[in-house]
Structures are given as structure tokens and as C-alpha cells.
Amino acid sequence: DELLFNSLSMSMTHAQQQNSGDVNHSPHLEQNMNGNIWTISRIQNELRQKENELQMLKERLLKLQETNDTFSDEIVRLKSQNEALNKYQALYRNQVKKVNALKLRYEAAIDIVMEKEKQIQQFSKP
User: Fold this and answer.
1) Quick check: 11 pLDDT over 60?
2) Closest by alpha carbon to 8, among 38, 48, 53, 30?
């Protein structure tokens, strides 16, 4: 970008030096040079705008990358937490099965004890 500007500036300076020594220099040539200067100025302004736009886009990209990194870390943390919760859920389900099995054994034991108590009462009656 600067190379283009320097090249254009040198061309303009060279043209001005050649024309400054020319006694018959025409208004058309001066108009042409003013147009070239305006064109260079316009190009420089556009270049500055594009550089500013590029800088803003780079900053935005950096922020998006930081946000992406943050979300990636959060996803890893949540996956780890999910795995731990799945293990606890499996343990819980296993414990529920054991408790239900114990309830059935307890009820069966109570039924047996009640049956034995009835038998004892029948034998105890005179």
C-alpha cells in the first residue's frame, strides 16, 4: 500500500519537476496533475478506511475466538459433570433396586414370622 503511494508520489514529483522547467506549461497539464493528486488522496482515504475496517475485523475475530475458547472450556466442563452425574444416576438406580429387593425380603420375612406366630398360637391353645 505504501509502495503504491510512494510510487505515485514519485511519479507526481517527477512530472512536477519536468513541468516546472517548462515555460509553456499548459492549464490542461495543471488540471491533470490536480486530478492525479485528488485521485491519490481519494485512494489514500479509501486505504485508511480499509485498514481501519481490517483492524476492527481483526479485533472482532479475536473477541470471537476468545468467546469460542470460553464456550469450548465450558462444554468440556459440562461434559465432565454430565459423566459424573450419569455415574451417580447409575449408582442411585442400583441402590433403588437393592432397596426394593430388601423390601420384598422384609415382607417375605414378616409373612413367615406371622405364619409361625399363628402356628405357635394354635399349638398354645388348650
Assistant:
1) no
2) 38
